[in-house]
Model the fold of this input.
Amino acid sequence: MRRKLIWLSIAVLLIALSAWSPWLTQPLAESRALNSFNKSWATVIDGCGTNCKGCGVINSKRVPFGMEVTLEYGCGLMPEDTSEYHEQATGFVSAFGTVHGFPRP
Done:
């Protein structure tokens, strides 16, 4: 009975620690999101990217089990490089560093 209680305590502690994920810093999460987005579009001719004025990470916040990151990016041929022609997407960087929710080709 005592062993079960110890294992249960360890499991609860690990879940709580993962929910908080102190090892996932804001710069790390932003870098992971930006690199993942750019890498997924790297081989697409005239695809999407963050190489435009004001593009890149525009917001990030900590949420349970990771961070939510918002990117601004441009796709295709734009008449001019202004925010009017840019798009935004919000994705999730998990406590394990995996990136989810951004548009892909």
